[in-house]
UniProtKB/TrEMBL annotation:
The gene is MEIG1. InterPro entries: Meiosis-expressed_gene_1. It holds the Pfam family Meiosis_expr. It comes from the Eukaryota. This is Meiosis/spermiosis associated 1. One of its GO terms (cellular component) is nucleus. GO terms for biological process: intracellular protein localization; manchette assembly; sperm axoneme assembly. Essential for spermiogenesis. Belongs to the MEIG1 family.
Length: 88
């Protein structure tokens, strides 16, 4: 299977916040499933991250506008259940 054909096998919802959930939240806000899909669509090797926290710093949406994120947590506890976790 080609790397551009990677599809998720299953999906689940986040139950509690973690750093991984924070980054998934940021990718999904920008319209992507996760970092894997972002790299496939945008053909990039690295994602801009905050050096202090490791959180995603900047993402380019499909319409070529940018989302810029803060160094601190942005995914509130009330938003955690909306985050989808994809398994490949």
């Amino acid at each position: 299977m080609a790397s551009s054909d990677v599809k998720p096998k299953s999906i689940s919802r986040a139950k509690k916040w973690s750093e991984a959930i924070e980054n998934l939240y940021r990718f999904q806000q920008a319209g992507y499933r996760d970092e894997t899909e972002y790299r496939q669509v945008k053909q990039v090797s690295m994602v801009d991250r905050w050096p202090e926290t490791g959180y995603v710093k900047k993402l380019q949406r499909r319409d070529n506008t940018f989302y810029y994120y803060n160094k601190q947590r942005e995914c509130d506890d009330k938003e955690v259940h909306k985050v989808k976790i994809y398994a490949y």
